[in-house]
């Protein structure tokens, strides 16, 4: 089974090559401004180095998100300890945090969020202290104590950026996991649907095989019995042989017609010339002139579901085939159908040698039992009282 053929298409995403180009362009767009901005702001070479230490690792943020975040966070700590003025490299932290929340686990994302909030508090204190210390000596602000009013604008601004990066990355990770689960669920449903179709086809092939067995076994058994009779009769009464051969031809044509119908089912065709399914009215056609079979059938035939009628027909057909094969040349049989309000009783009893059990383990009995059980019916097969063989079935209607 080709799973790729039936798997549903997932949501649109960049291909591997486009993803690599996007990562390269994004990281380059954050690295290159470090040079002109450092020059325009009059920052030192160390400030430029700090910016590059924070932005360059973003080239690998997708494959190694946790390692890149750790490196960027360490570079940010180094900047806070050695350089008190914000630099362009600070933009790398939310980008690294987004990548951590997007491509790593939820636990790692929470750790990154905690680091970011702590970093926001430290950066707020460092930058506020640097601004106050930058006032000229002698002013009243020299001994100024930093309060919450001074820290709050910096802290909440930085914390908002950190929280937004974490939230966007986490949402993207959750959405992708949800999409992946939907795609997998769709694939499983498609596989289950195909498996059900395969099982249904196998069941239908089994049913048709039972039909074919019934048709071929019955037709050939009648042909063989009639042909043997014609061979012996030809020596004494050629006219009887001619009539018998006519019966053989008729049975052969009927069997061929049913085989064409079954082959039409296998081909999936809808040929209107094919014969319909056998019914209860067709049971007398199973008995030939040379058979010693008594029919006890209700007249008119009771109205039963098509499936029940077909099952009854095939059960009688298989039973008479076994009578011809096993009961002996002079065996007599009785076919009896009794219809009640809620069931159809079928009985085929012969007075032959009682050796029909020789074929009881074959496909014929198995097919009969399966047909009856499909309709929640019961089947009893075994020696009849006083000798012979009996087949009795009860099929709910």
UniProtKB/TrEMBL annotation:
Keywords: ATP-binding, Kinase, Membrane, Nucleotide-binding, Phosphoprotein, Transferase, Transmembrane, Transmembrane helix, Two-component regulatory system. Residues 204-269 form the Signal transduction histidine kinase subgroup 3 dimerisation and phosphoacceptor domain. InterPro entries: DUF7134, HATPase_C_sf, HATPase_dom, Sensor_HK_TwoCompSys, Sig_transdc_His_kin_sub3_dim/P. It catalyses: ATP + protein L-histidine = ADP + protein N-phospho-L-histidine. Gene3D superfamilies: 1.20.5.1930, Histidine kinase-like ATPase, C-terminal domain. GO terms for molecular function: ATP binding; phosphorelay sensor kinase activity; protein dimerization activity. The chain crosses the membrane at residues 21-46, 66-85, 106-127, 151-169. Pfam families: DUF7134, HATPase_c, HisKA_3. This is histidine kinase. The lineage of its organism: Bacteria, Bacillati, Actinomycetota, Actinomycetes, Propionibacteriales.
């Amino acid at each position: 089974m080709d799973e790729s053929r039936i798997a549903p298409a997932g949501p649109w995403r960049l291909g591997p090559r486009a993803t690599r180009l996007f990562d390269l362009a994004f990281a380059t767009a954050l690295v290159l401004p470090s040079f002109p901005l450092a020059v325009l702001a009059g920052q030192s070479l160390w400030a430029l180095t700090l910016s590059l230490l924070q932005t360059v690792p973003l080239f690998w943020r997708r494959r190694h998100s946790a390692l890149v975040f750790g490196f960027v966070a360490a570079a940010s700590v180094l900047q806070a300890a050695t350089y008190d003025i914000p630099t362009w490299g600070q933009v790398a932290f939310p980008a690294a945090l987004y990548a951590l929340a997007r491509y790593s686990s939820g636990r790692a994302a929470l750790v990154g969020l905690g680091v970011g909030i702590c970093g926001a508090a430290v950066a707020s204190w460092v930058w506020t202290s640097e601004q106050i210390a930058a006032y000229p000596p002698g002013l009243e602000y020299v001994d100024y104590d930093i309060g919450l009013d001074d820290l709050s604008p910096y802290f909440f601004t930085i914390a908002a950026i950190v929280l937004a990066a974490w939230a966007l990355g986490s949402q993207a990770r959750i959405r992708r996991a949800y999409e992946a689960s939907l795609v997998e669920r769709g694939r499983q449903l498609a596989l289950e649907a195909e498996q059900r179709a395969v099982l249904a086809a196998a069941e239908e092939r089994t049913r048709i095989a039972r039909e074919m067995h019934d048709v071929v076994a019955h037709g050939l058994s009648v042909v063989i019995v009639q042909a043997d009779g014609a061979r012996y009769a030809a020596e004494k009464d050629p006219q009887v042989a001619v009539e018998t051969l006519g019966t053989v031809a008729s049975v052969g044509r009927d069997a061929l017609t049913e085989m064409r119908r079954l082959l039409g089912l296998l081909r999936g065709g809808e040929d209107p010339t094919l014969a319909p399914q056998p019914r209860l009215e067709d049971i007398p056609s199973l008995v030939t002139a040379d058979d010693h079979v008594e029919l006890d059938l209700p007249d008119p035939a009771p109205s039963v579901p098509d499936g029940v009628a077909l099952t009854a027909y095939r059960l009688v057909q298989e039973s008479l085939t076994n009578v011809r094969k096993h009961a002996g040349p002079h065996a007599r049989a009785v076919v009896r159908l009794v219809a009640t309000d809620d069931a159809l009783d079928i009985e085929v009893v012969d007075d032959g040698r009682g050796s029909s059990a020789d074929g009881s383990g074959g496909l014929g009995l198995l097919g009969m039992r399966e047909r009856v059980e499909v309709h929640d019916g019961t089947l009893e097969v075994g020696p009849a009282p006083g000798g012979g063989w009996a087949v009795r079935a009860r099929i709910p209607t």
